[in-house]
Design goal:
Elements: H1 2-13, H2 15-23, E1 27-30, E2 35-37, H3 41-52, E3 58-60, H4 68-72, H5 104-117, E4 127-134, E5 139-145, E6 151-156, E7 159-161, E8 168-169, E9 183-186, E10 200-204, H6 208-219, E11 223-227, E12 234-236, E13 238-239, E14 242-243, H7 244-252, H8 257-272, H9 287-294, E15 299-301, H10 304-309, E16 314-316, E17 337-340, E18 344-345, E19 355-356
Parallel strand pairs: 1-6, 2-3, 2-7, 7-19, 9-17, 10-11, 10-17, 11-16, 12-15
Antiparallel strand pairs: 4-5, 5-6, 8-18, 13-14
Length: about 350
Amino acid sequence: MDCLREIEGKQAHDPIFIDKMNKSSKRCVCVPGPLIVGAGPSGLAVAACLKERGVPITVIERSNCVASLWQLKTYDRLRLHLPKQFCELPLMGFPTEFPTYPTKQQFVDYLEKYADKFDIRPRFNETVSHAEFDRVIGFWRVRTVGPKVEEKEYVCRWLVVATGENAEAVVPNIEGMGEFEGDIRHTSLYSSGEEFRGKRVLVVGCGNSGMEVCLDLCNHSAKPSVVVRDTVHVLPKEMLGKSTFGLSMWLLKWLPMRVVDGLLLIVSRMMLGDTAKLGFERPQLGPLELKTVSGKTPVLDVGTLARIKSGDIKVLSITFHSFALSGSYVLDESLPLVTVSNNFIGCFSYPGPILFFLLKV
């Protein structure tokens, strides 16, 4: 292989490289093409496109399946929030019989068939512990740890990080957590409201996942309250018979972003009413401009606002800083669950010539 011959050449002429390799007790694997970290939608899409062009690829995945975040860390009622035509991967569309908004299981099935079609065989259960670009040899050195703590070092010219935007759950350190006798759970560990029938639940965060978890709890006869910690844009999922996202993308072809934002907010006000009266103050920037500037995604309403208006969900506009007292709302041990939503970070934060492929659906 060209990659192997190049490394052998460096070994023959570079004593520093030889010394580094001799000192390493890890199994060294030469990757002839790009090394792709992550077997989610982004990683699969990059792998398929490269393979179609005859580029050999190696995919490593820390979990035991493709699309692990979708399979292992999402709630049961989840559907794509955007129409399927905006979420399909390159070179293979969704089955025509799929609904406009595929279910979680349908999306997982689609991704597994996608991997099979393009013969993408990730190396599962390998977690990246370190990655750095070795400027002496001109290659990336990527260390991984397996399930039995065995170590490998991959040597590659190109590194593709496809770990996604929501790779790691973050639970903030809130005063009193250790003494709280109820359950504290991140939304990545929430599956269904069935286990909370008739119980009180506090949801901290009003993003898309927090709002949908509230609705799911209501549908299972729980008694949820949601903490609104910041301003937020809540938009209808569809406007004028079209998806809000699709309509926005079409309007942006012809109109400036601020004009499109204004139109979205006018239609939202007509359809949803004044969300500020429900406890959801809107930011100063419009939804599209805010997404562009800060990355903050607007909430697409899937029915939660109707349950708030009916009184089934309580909205608490408070600063949640303690399990003893937050504003005027006292949290006591009769709350069986506190769910923390919308706190994630990506897996990687490495400098150097690294390629980021992120796909959020």
